[in-house]
Amino acid sequence: MSISASPITAMPPSDRSRVRRAAERAHYDQATVHAIVDAAWVCHVAFNDGDHVVCIPTASWRVGDTLYVHGSNGSRMMKRLAEGAPACVTITHVDGLVMARSAFSHSMNYRSVVVHGRFSAVPEDAKAAVLDALMDHMAPGRREHARAPDESELKATTVLGIPLLEAAAKIRNWGPRDKDEDLALPVWAGVLPLREQRLPPVDEPGFDGPVPAYVSRWTD
Amino acid sequence: MSISASPITAMPPSDRSRVRRAAERAHYDQATVHAIVDAAWVCHVAFNDGDHVVCIPTASWRVGDTLYVHGSNGSRMMKRLAEGAPACVTITHVDGLVMARSAFSHSMNYRSVVVHGRFSAVPEDAKAAVLDALMDHMAPGRREHARAPDESELKATTVLGIPLLEAAAKIRNWGPRDKDEDLALPVWAGVLPLREQRLPPVDEPGFDGPVPAYVSRWTD
C-alpha cells in the first residue's frame, strides 16, 4: 500500500485537528487520510458517556468523504453517537520500531488519522447501500454471495457516518534521527519493520462450491 | 502468543468496565488483560481537552499492574493526563475477518482491552527504571546497548502510569455463528486470519559490530 504525500485536496486544519507534536509528520490532504482509513479494519471511537470518557474499537469503512461505523440499535455507543455526541475517531497502523543509538531517540514508524466531529445516522433507505460498502471493504465480491440483510436485520442495525473533513494524518516512515553527538556511538541502529500479514483461510465445513477469489487469493 | 482464558486473578468489573455488548466475549482476569497489553506497541488514550474529546495513539508498555505511556513535557496530552484528567485507554488487535453465510452475521476476530481510570506521573527518581522497561518491551537487551537517557532527557520526559485494575478484555476467536436457517446456504463461510508480521531489519549505515540478537532474530 502506498501513501501519497502529495496533496490532492487540502483540508486546512482546524484548531483542534492541527498536529502540534512532531508537526513535520502531519498531512492534511484527503488522499493521505483516505489511504490510512482504507487500510484499517477498525477505528477507535472516543466520546463521553455521561460523566466518563469512553474509547471503543469498532469496524470502520469509508465511502467518499465519510467514515462509517455500525452496531446494534441497543448499543450505548450507537445511541450516544446517534444523539450527536462530540466524537474523536482514531486509526493507527504501526509500521516498525525505530532503534536509535540513544534510548531517548527511539521511536516508531506509523500511519495514523485523527478525526473530530459528530456522527449522524444513515437514513433507513440508505442503510443497505452503506452496509454493502462494508462488505466490499472486507472482501470485494462478497456481497454477491452472502445472504443480504433482511428488513428486520436492517432495522436492528444503526449505521453512523462522520465526515472525514476535520481530519489530520500523521506519518513517520524513516530511520532513526539521533542527535549529532550520538551518531558515532558503536550501537546498532535501524528499523525493525512490522506489517499486517494475511494467513491461510480457515474454512467452515459444509460448503462444496467453488471457493471465491477473495478467499483463494487472500494471502496473495 | 497465547491468551489464557482461565482467571488467574479476577478483577470484578465496575459499572463502567463491564462489557455490555457480546458479553460472552468478556474477560476480567489479569492474565488475559496483561497478555493483550503486552502484545501491543501502542494504545489509544481518550480524554477531554477543554470542551472536546480527544483520542491519541501512543506507545505503551506494562510493568506489573500498571500501563505506562510517555511523552514530551510540552505535550498537551501529557499535561492533561498528568493533571488527572479521566481517561480511557484502549488496545485492539485484529486477528481475522469472520465471513458468515449472511451479511448480518459477519464479524471480526480480535483481542481488546479497555481501561478506565486516571494516570499519575512517575516520580523523577523512578523514571529511568520505567523507561528501561519500555526498552525491554521494544527489544530485550537493547537497554544494555543504547545510550541511556541523560539527566536533561529524563527531565524533558513525562512518564505516566494508569492501573490495569478497572479493565476489561474482550476476545472473539471463533468461526462464523450463522442463524440456523442460514447454515445450509451455498455460501463459503470461514475466517480470513490476520496477524502482525515482522519483516527483515533495515540497518542504518556506519555500524560494524556484532548484530544484537533482537535484530538478528527479529523475524524468527
How would you characterize this protein structure?
The structure is a homodimer of 220-residue chains. Chain A is of the alpha+beta class and 220 residues long. Chain A has helices at residues 30-38, 76-82, 124-138, 151-156, 213-216, and strands spanning 26-27, 42-49, 52-59, 61-63, 66-72, 86-99, 107-118, 120-121, 157-163, 167-172, 190-198, 202-203. In chain A, the strands form two sheets. In chain A, strands 1, 2, 3, 6, 7, 10 and 11 form a seven-stranded antiparallel sheet that branches. Chain A has a four-stranded antiparallel sheet with strand order 4-5-9-8, with helices on both faces. Chain A is globular, with a radius of gyration of 20 Å. Chain A starts with 25 loop residues before the first strand and ends with a helix. Chains A and B meet through β2, β3, β6, β7 and α3 of A and β2, β3, β6, β7 and α3 of B. β11 of chain A pairs antiparallel with β12 (202-203) of chain B, so a sheet runs across the interface.
